[in-house]
């Protein structure tokens, strides 16, 4: 009947290095033009020491936002911190989110490099969100 074949290959070990800082974004699946939407960022310190970061939300033609443009963040060892912004979409479509930047003070660079931080942001954060046109109310339809 059927012949079964098996092959065994030994692979070199693979080391996975987890950075000292992790970030996750919680955003709605979609938004509506001129309707506020909350975007939450969760920063996790996976190290055993205090990490200081500067978090900046870049200006965007597609969104207005409420909240501080720049925030200093102190991540305690093995703890998570939540930072929220309220975004108000100005255009409909598959819209680029405002860019979030994290930077490390020069005296803290021995804890985490700028390159690693940029890599974490690039891998972890969504870049776009669907924004629906504003729906008309019944008064606007009748009026």
UniProtKB/TrEMBL annotation:
One GO CC annotation: cytoplasm
Highest taxon of source: Eukaryota
Cited InterPro entries: Gryzun
Gryzun putative trafficking through Golgi domain: residues covered: 38-100
Cited PANTHER family: FOIE GRAS, TRAFFICKING PROTEIN PARTICLE COMPLEX SUBUNIT 11
Name of the protein described by the UniProt record: TRAPPC11_2 protein
Species classification: Eukaryota, Metazoa, Ecdysozoa, Arthropoda, Hexapoda
The encoding gene: TRAPPC11_2
């Amino acid at each position: 009947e059927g012949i079964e074949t098996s092959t065994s290959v030994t692979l070199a070990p693979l080391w996975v290095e987890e950075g000292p800082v992790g970030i996750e974004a919680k955003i709605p699946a979609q938004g509506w033009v001129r309707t506020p939407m909350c975007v939450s960022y969760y920063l996790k310190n996976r190290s055993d020491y205090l990490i200081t970061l500067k978090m900046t939300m870049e200006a965007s033609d597609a969104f207005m936002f409420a909240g501080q443009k720049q925030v200093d963040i102190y991540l305690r060892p093995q703890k998570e911190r939540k930072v929220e912004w309220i975004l108000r979409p100005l255009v409909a479509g598959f819209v680029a989110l405002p860019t979030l930047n994290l930077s490390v003070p020069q005296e803290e660079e021995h804890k985490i490099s700028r390159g690693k931080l940029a890599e974490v942001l690039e891998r972890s954060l969504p870049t776009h969100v669907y924004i629906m046109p504003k729906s008309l109310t019944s008064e606007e339809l009748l009026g």
